[in-house]
Amino acid sequence: MLSLSLCLFFGIKAQEDVLISYEHIAHLSVEDIQQRYKALGIPKLITPIRYPIDIYDVIYYTELPDGKKIRASGIYFVPQVEKGLALPVIQYNHGTAFKMRGKGSYDYNGEKDVATFYATDGYAIAWQDYIGLGKVNDHFHPYQHAETEGRSGYDLLRALREVNFELDITWNDELFITGYSQGGHAAMAVHKYIQEHPEGGLSVTASSPMSGAYDMAGAQSAIMFQEYTQPWYLPYLIYGYESIYDEIEGPTEAVFNPPYDTLIPNMYDGKHDRFDFNKVLPSIPAEMVVDSMVNLFKTDSNFFFTRLLEENALWNWVPQSPMQICYCQADEEVFYKNALVAHEYMTSHGAVHNRLRHTGRKFNHFDCAGFSAIYTKFYFDSFRKGSKRGRKGPIIKRFMITMAKLFTKAK
Question: Which has the least CB within 10 A, 81, 145, 292, 318?
Fold first, then answer.
């Protein structure tokens, strides 16, 4: 039986049984992209505008850890390149989102601009929605769950190979992975999943996880016990894990102190957003959780929730492909030591070409995102230009970014 790669080489359609459907939802002309660059103040020297982009909604099958097949969706940005030109691919992972995308939408958190400036320079973008978000809602989103993030990103790439056959699109052998915030955690998860499943015929050229909580039981856990800007992350995590694991006995609401035990479940009705949650939740996340569970988390290393966080850690593995880990020291949402812990473990256990990229000392989580995305593109571009280990990028472009950072005020 021919392998998938041989089938594609000889123009024979391989049956992967992953793709459900795809639909063209938008076209961005060069003029559209130029206007957007102008509105955002992005110099074309930093990342050129070369191609118009077609955007597709994709629905495909993935699997839960118990083997149950489930639908998921993604967004496919395809640059309209010269006929016959093979495209490098970026598997992209968005930051934390609570609501599904609306009809015709191809965005989360404004990240469509990141996907656009990658795609207009010739990258195909395979952007996963994650299970429970996007265009299908067959399951509550398992927030920060490494296996489902990794598997759904992997399966999206498989589904897109079927789309490529239908649309006469060709990928080259360069596969990059990135994402910011939850997307940083997911980028690690996808890279790890692909590495551990070579039978899929995928191979990672390089990845650049950005500001992810890779060490939730360690470096990131301190945020539970101090003033925090996004307390809604904690119930989202608890409900997400409850949808996957059986360790939480009885109603999930029993985890929370009054009045949060009734407030929180009533807000998962599709009508509320993260701002609504943050208005009613305590600024110190641990205060919404019953004392008995907080004490167990502090004192018992075998406490089930600690074990679940450790199971979904992504700092303690060794990537076999180059990786750049971006972070900002002043990030108030994802503690920067997540990046340091991951880098130290990986390099001390034999990872080659694993680098830290400190994006800025003064930037909060929001401002860190844009600069990290630019540094990630510089890094990926260097592989397209022949680097085997990855470089920081052209000196002139880096100088321009440094000057821009000097004039960006800390918030």
Answer: 292
Q: Position 253: which residue type?
A: E
> Virtual CA dihedral for 403, 404, 410, 411, nearest 10 degrees?
180
Beta-carbon contacts of 127 under 8 Å, excluding residues fewer than 6 positions away, are 74, 75, 76, 77, 92, 93, 94, 115
Give phi and psi for 408, each to the nearest 5. -95, 120
172-205 CB burial, b ≥16 within 10 A, e <16: eebbbbbbbbbbbbbbbbbbbbbbeeeeebbebb
Q: How confident is the model at residue 269 (pLDDT cuts 50, 70, 90)?
A: confident
pLDDT tens-digit map of 32-84: 999 999 999 888 888 899 999 999 999 999 999 999 999 999 999 999 999 88
Q: Structure pTM?
A: 0.94
One-letter identity of residue 265: P
CATH number 3.40.50.1820 given to 16-215+319-406: yes
At the topology level, CATH places domain 221-311 in 434 Repressor (Amino-terminal Domain) (1.10.260)
Q: What is the pLDDT of residues 351-395, one digit of tens each?
A: 999 999 999 889 999 999 999 999 999 999 999 999 999 999 889
